[in-house]
Design brief:
The chain has 18 helices and 14 strands. The chain is an alpha/beta fold. The chain has two domains: 2-205 and 417-429, Rossmann fold, CATH 3.40.50; 215-413, Glycogen Phosphorylase B (Rossmann fold, 3-Layer(aba) Sandwich). It catalyses: lipid IVA (E. coli) + CMP-3-deoxy-beta-D-manno-octulosonate = alpha-Kdo-(2->6)-lipid IVA (E. coli) + CMP + H(+).
Length: 434
């Protein structure tokens, strides 16, 4: 009965969901494409053993990449299907894996749409990244005998409180999952408190610690830095949100007073916001430069193009290049943290040996940030003024690399290995030998 009420409400909201896709298409036309997949009409895939991984958008796809590559290496006879819900996630899948994986959008969580999707996609094993709780999807998977894993599962304070109010719906949904692979002990305890059985939940660690330091990324970053200029301070503000870019630009203006040659790389979380961000740069009295206008991705700008001048801000409005631009920088500010968004992954710049700055709103990565603070590997600032002062101080004193700290390197190593643990458990559920 609870799932019936949920489905009825979702059915009523579906026209609004489609309208939202249409409206978002004003900024990114890809939101207006492939609606058939969102209604379950995905391509009919060949009948073979298939691992299906659902990764909502860009961040989840990046986190899933080591898992997908490891599975490809261990089980080359299996097909790999990756679903997303956003066009940016779709583009990231194609950029990382090309045609080596199958891809489509995940349909809305209505039972007949989910059944149609599962009949056409024919998965043998399912892994859902992060905390995606879909009552009809999980019920249909259980009915079909499809083992389903929630990977890298986490529950922030805010999410836990919200889900607890819906425990009548969440508890039976969680009980249909074969394995909840939680990031840590606290997350595991919260899933049990929401109704999962203790035997369903294991704290396997955070997959994001297994992020790869790609030689190709490092080489691309070096090439970008050669063009940007080796003798100037370069910092990146990554994954920023509305209301945050203004603060970042104010901080950069403070830095320019002391370091006139300093360059900011500004990478909004959603590239379709590039026009608005470019307008903010211009309104701040700075010179906007758009990455997509410099040449095709992922190539470098034409050789004859002059480097950004004094007061320039390079807006990174492309997908798949963030790690390269991290690698081209001296210091990273990780966004979503000077606004109440919860912050983004600080491990991405850290794996490239960048010092990390963040705002105080980092509840999405609370445990990671707490440990980084204990290791003195991150600086938290609470305003544009504080961010500007931290930048001035860092560049005046010489930006230290976290790689110089054995404690940070040891901490990273100790937290790695969750991908291997997850694959081992997935193989067991699929009846495979390691």
């Amino acid at each position: 009965m609870t799932r019936l009420l949920y489905s009825a409400l979702l059915l009523l909201l579906t026209p609004l969901a489609l309208l939202r896709l249409w409206l978002r298409g004003r900024g990114n036309p890809d939101y207006r494409k492939r609606w058939g997949e969102r209604l379950g009409f995905v391509p009919v895939l060949p009948r073979r053993q298939r691992l299906w991984v659902h990764a909502v958008s860009v961040g989840e796809t990046i986190a899933a990449a080591p898992l997908l590559r490891a599975w490809q290496a261990a089980h080359p006879d299996w097909a790999l299907l990756v679903t997303t819900t956003t066009p940016t996630g779709s583009a990231q899948v194609r950029r990382l894996f090309g045609d080596s994986v199958e891809h489509c959008y995940l349909p809305f969580d209505l039972p007949w749409l989910v059944v149609l999707f599962l009949r056409r996609s024919r998965p043998s094993l399912a892994i859902v990244m992060e905390t995606e709780i879909w009552p009809n999807l999980y019920a249909c998977a259980q009915r079909r005998g499809l083992p389903l894993i929630m990977a890298n599962a986490r529950l922030s304070d805010k999410s836990f409180k919200a889900y607890r109010r819906l425990r009548w719906l969440v508890a039976p949904t969680l009980q249909r999952v074969a394995l909840i692979a939680a990031r840590g002990r606290e997350d595991a305890e919260r899933f049990v408190a929401l109704g999962a059985a203790a035997g369903q939940v294991e704290a396997l660690g955070n997959l994001k610690f297994d992020l790869e330091r790609s030689p190709q990324v490092v080489a691309a970053g070096r090439a970008w830095r050669d063009w940007l200029g080796q003798g100037r301070p370069v910092w990146i503000a990554a994954s920023t949100h509305p209301g945050e870019e203004e603060q970042v630009l104010a901080a950069h203006r403070l830095l320019l007073e002391q370091q006139p040659q300093a360059l900011l790389l500004l990478a909004p979380r959603h590239p379709e916001r590039a026009e608005a961000v470019l307008a903010l740069v211009q309104a701040a009295g700075l010179q906007p430069l758009r990455r997509s206008g410099l040449g095709p991705v992922p190539q470098l700008p034409p050789l004859g193009l002059p480097a950004p001048g004094t007061g320039a801000v390079l807006v990174v409005d492309t997908l798949g290049e963030l790690m390269a631009f991290y690698s081209a920088s001296d210091l990273a500010y990780v966004g979503g943290s000077l606004v109440a968004n919860g912050g983004h992954n600080p491990l991405e710049p850290l794996v490239l040996d960048l010092p990390v700055l963040s705002g105080p709103q980092v509840f999405n990565f609370r445990e990671v940030y707490a440990e980084l603070q204990a290791l003195d590997a991150v600086t938290l600032v609470d305003s544009a003024q504080a961010l500007g002062q931290a930048l001035v101080s860092a560049f005046e004193q010489g930006v230290p690399s976290p790689a110089a700290s054995p404690a940070v390197a040891d901490w990273m190593r100790q937290n790695q290995g969750s991908t291997a643990r997850l694959i081992e458990r997935a193989q067991q559920l699929a009846g495979l030998s390691a």
